[in-house]
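Team,

Forwarding the record for the chain on the shared tracking sheet. I've put the sequence and predicted structure together so nobody has to dig through attachments.
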Amino acid sequence: MQPIIWEKRGLLLGPESAPTWREAHSGMVSVLPWAGDTYRVFLTGRDACSRFQIGWLDLNRDFTVVYENPANPVLSAGRMGCFDSQGVCMPSVVRVSDSVLYMYYVGWEPGLAGTIVNNCGLAISEDNGATWHRWSEAPVLPRDAQDPIGTGTVYVLRGCREAWRMWYTTFRNWRLLEDGTWRHFYHIKYAESDDGIHWHKPPDNIAVDFADEWEYAVARPVVLQEPDGYRMWFCTRSAGSSYRIGYAESVDGRHWSRAPSGIEPSADGWDADMVEYAYVLKENQEYLMFYNGNGFGASGTGVARGFCREETR
């Protein structure tokens, strides 16, 4: 596939003048084209008490906020003892019908010895995204022999050869470091479903594994199907570095080969230290990438426009 040339367009959502539910963090988005030539942005917010929650707002085609839901957040932490009792984040929203949307999200709770426990949940809207309710208080991807520790961010495609296809983050292990802290290791796997709720994990379903002995985080996939294959963007982090945006291509969606992503931190400013949590749309021949910057989204969310090389203008 032709490489994509990215042109950064700057910060679009920052902490300045943000409502209280997202005053400390605005990012980790999922974006759908919406009515009235707008984009509906489902995003993670963190408030001054470090509570992670999910809400939505609308952008126009100049990436200016034209409406923010006054009822935000639409999804908050679950009941004490449940898998999402300490917060919800990282929405990935799929349209099912004119009125029904599915939101896959990460719920987390504290683990032992300073570790965390993540799992993927599902919330459903039956009024075109205005309000949401949990499909279950349990994760939609249960722990099992293939994923015994926990799962995280996902991306789901409909309308392919299989009814539903999912690429998901899963914890491989925790490793005790010399300084006494624990480091997580997670990578990306693959699953299939007939209904978007009950998922089958094929044997040997690793999609994107670690590139080398230094890499320990491969997460937050987003996938586009092209006429000649699939493109995937994801987060990657290695020992001694901060998050970067990774990229891979596949003929069948199962077997992936990495390539340069074409987008790196800026020389200075809000995304000089980190670029991560990309969400990519394609409209006609143009690609749009919404991504986070420094501090895992503490500095906000920006956007880049992309074109294939022969279409760059």
